[in-house]
Q: What sequence folds into this?
């Protein structure tokens, strides 16, 4: 996986005004809740006042600079898309066009599983199929798009659509499982 230089790390922590590990952990939890778990964004007054109560004072100073957090909260869809793309770039070895399938599945389980249950079935399918070894940028992007637009019941999946063969094979596998009565496809999430 990629590395951050000390200069990059220091620059990022300086911009966010993060000066301790507990504050970094808080910032990461808040971003995870916002972008991965799709929870409501913190409000300026609520986040500052809860921190003031924890410190036992009346100060409304936030624990770190939440300017970037608020930018992400204002367009969560774009912020998640940026995070998703960043993770592909971060995981891709230098000079390579793909990330290995094991890494892609691990990232999908972290990035997509909290929002889209269908990804868990895809992650189960890939080792069973055994023919796929990696995910290029097109597969990476199409898996996210598939999760976003295709109902977990697969009722709106269009076989003649422009999906990569990996996803066509997955849908055929899922339908064969339900046709055999082995396991029902999960109901749509809200």
A:
């Amino acid at each position: 996986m990629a590395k951050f230089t000390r200069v990059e790390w220091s620059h990022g922590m300086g911009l966010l005004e993060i000066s301790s590990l507990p504050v970094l952990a808080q910032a990461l939890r808040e971003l995870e809740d916002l972008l991965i778990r799709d929870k409501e964004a913190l409000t300026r007054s609520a986040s500052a006042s809860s921190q003031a109560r924890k410190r036992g004072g009346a100060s409304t100073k936030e624990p770190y600079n939440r300017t970037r957090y608020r930018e992400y909260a204002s367009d969560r869809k774009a912020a998640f898309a940026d995070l998703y793309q960043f993770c592909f770039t971060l995981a891709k070895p230098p000079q390579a066009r793909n990330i290995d399938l094991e890494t892609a599945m691990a990232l999908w389980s972290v990035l997509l599983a909290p929002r889209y249950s269908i990804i868990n079935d895809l992650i189960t399918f890939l080792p069973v199929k055994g023919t796929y070894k990696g995910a290029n940028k097109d597969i990476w992007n199409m898996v996210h798009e598939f999760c976003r637009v295709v109902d977990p019941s697969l009722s709106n999946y269009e076989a003649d659509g422009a999906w990569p063969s990996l996803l066509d094979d997955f849908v055929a596998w899922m339908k064969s499982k339900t046709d055999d009565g082995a396991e029902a496809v999960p109901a749509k999430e809200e």
